[in-house]
Design goal:
The structure is a homodimer. By secondary structure, chain A is of the alpha+beta class. The first copy, chain A, folds into two domains: 2-142, Fructose-1,6-Bisphosphatase, subunit A, domain 1 (Fructose-1,6-Bisphosphatase, Chain A, domain 1, 2-Layer Sandwich); 151-258, D-Maltodextrin-Binding Protein, domain 2 (3-Layer(aba) Sandwich), CATH 3.40.190.80. Chain A contains eight helices and 14 strands. Chain A has helices at 2-25, 44-60, 92-98, 160-164, 170-176, 186-194, 207-219, 246-258; strands spanning 32-34, 41-43, 65-68, 82-90, 103-110, 113-121, 126-131, 135-138, 141-142, 155-158, 179-181, 200-205, 223-226, 239-244. In chain A, the strands form three sheets. Chain A has a seven-stranded mixed β-sheet, sandwiched between helices. In chain A, strands 11-10-12-14-13 form a five-stranded mixed β-sheet, with helices on both faces. In chain A, helix 1 runs antiparallel to helix 2 and helix 6 (186-194) runs parallel beside helix 7 (207-219). Chain A is globular, with a radius of gyration of 17 Å. Chains A, B: This is Inositol monophosphatase. Chains A, B: It comes from Vagococcus acidifermentans.
Chain lengths: 260, 260
Amino acid sequence: MADDKQLMAQVKQWILEAGEEVKRKLQDPLIVEQKSSRTDLVTNVDKETEAFLVEKIRSHYPADQILGEEGLGDKPETTDGRVWIIDPIDGTINFVKQRENFCIMIGIFEDGLGKLGFIYDVIKDEFVYGGSGTGVFLNGSPLKQIEDVPLSEGLVGVNGTMFVNNYMSTRNVGLASSGFRILGCAGLDFLHMFMSRQCAYVSNLAPWDFAAGMVIGHALGLRCSRLDGREADIIGERVPFVIATPSAYEEIQALVIAAG
Amino acid sequence: MADDKQLMAQVKQWILEAGEEVKRKLQDPLIVEQKSSRTDLVTNVDKETEAFLVEKIRSHYPADQILGEEGLGDKPETTDGRVWIIDPIDGTINFVKQRENFCIMIGIFEDGLGKLGFIYDVIKDEFVYGGSGTGVFLNGSPLKQIEDVPLSEGLVGVNGTMFVNNYMSTRNVGLASSGFRILGCAGLDFLHMFMSRQCAYVSNLAPWDFAAGMVIGHALGLRCSRLDGREADIIGERVPFVIATPSAYEEIQALVIAAG
C-alpha cells in the first residue's frame, strides 16, 4: 500500500513532466508518418514520449516488463511480475489535427492484476490516476463515487466503424442511450466515465488503449471486459471492449447476447 | 464599422455575464424537461439564459426582432431590419449529462446580411466573436487565418443520424476524411472549424444552431450553405447544413451531387 502510493506519486511526476515536454513540442512542426493506413498516424512526439517513459521505468525498475504502443518496450509473453502498459499519445489524429483532445496513459499490473492507472488529458490538464489500493484521484483530489446511471439516462462513447456496421450491437447500444459521441481518443472516453459524464464506452481497443482505464474503472466500481463478456487480456490483441456503469453494463450485455 | 465594434463589445459582455450565471447555476440541481422526445431536453438554465439575453436586447434595441430557440423572442416573418438569433444553451444534453461541452451562441443580421456572430464555450472559456466588418477574435486576440485543408487531410464533425443513414452522402463525407467526430454541440464543431481543428461539419441544423457560426465562418473565408448548396434561411426550418474549408466544400458538394 505504502509502496503503491509512492509508485503512484513517482509515475504521476513522470507523466506531468512528459506532458510539459509534449506541450513544448506542439510549438514546433510535427514529423508525421503513416503506420497501417492514412488514418493511422504516428509522430515524433509519440515516439519521444514513449522513449522518455521507457527510460524512466528501465532506470528505476530494470526487472519490469514494458508494453508500449510504439514498440520501444518489450514484447511481454507472460503477465508474471510487474508489467507496464504505455500509450504515449492516445488519440494521435486529434493530436496532429487539433493539437488537443489527446491523452498520455499508463497502466501498471502485478502478476496480471491491475495496480495503478494514469490518464492525463494534457491540454485540458485533467489527470486521473490511482487504483483499488490507493484510491483514485483527479488532479490531487479523491474522485467522487460513480453514479450508477442506466443506459437510457446516459451518454455513450462509440467506435465509429463498429457503430456504422452495428457490430456486436454497438449501434443498438448507442440508440438505447441518451446520445452517442465519437471523440477519437479512448482516454477522453475513460475520463468521461470516471467523472460520470458518460455511462458507457464501446470500442475496438488494444491493451495500451484500455489498460489504464480498466485499472481505474475497476477501482471506481465500473464494469469492464471484452464486449462478449470475457476478460480482456492485457498482453493480447485488439478486441471489442466495453466499460460501463453496473446498470448499463448489464443492459449492454443483454443487447449483445440478443444480437447473437 | 465603429457601431459594429461597439455592438460587438456590448454583446460580448452580455454573453460573458450570462456565462458566469450559467456556471453558478451548474452548482445547483437542474430542472430538466423533455421537449419533442427523451433526447430533446430543455432546462431552467436554457430558459433563464434566453430570458436574460432577450431582456438585454429589448431594453437596448426595442425595434429589433429576436428569434430564440426557447421561444421567448418573436416569430420573425421577414429578415428586414436587425434580427438577433439566440441559442442560449447549444448542446443541452451535454450540458445536462456532462456539465461541459455546451455553448452560448448569438448571430446578428441586418436586412438578412450577417453582421456579427458569437460562440462561447463557457466551461473551456473559448470565446470566438466578430464578423466581416470587425474582424474575428478569439478571447480578445485576432483569429489566425483558416488553413484551406482538403477533406482527406482534415477531421469532420457529423450528425449521427445523417451519418448512420448516409443521408445526402454524409457517411461518404466522413469516410473520405481523416476521421469523423460526433460531439453533440454545433457550437463546438464551429469552434473547431474556426481554429482549423476540423475541415468540415455536416449536420441537421435550425437557424439558432447555425446563425452565429455562419456569420463568423463567412468572415473567416469558410464556405457554408445548406448541404444541397442553396443558401440557408435564417428564419426558416431545420435543414441539412454544411460548413467547410473552400477545398473540402467543393469535395463535399461533388459527393452530394454524385449521390443524387
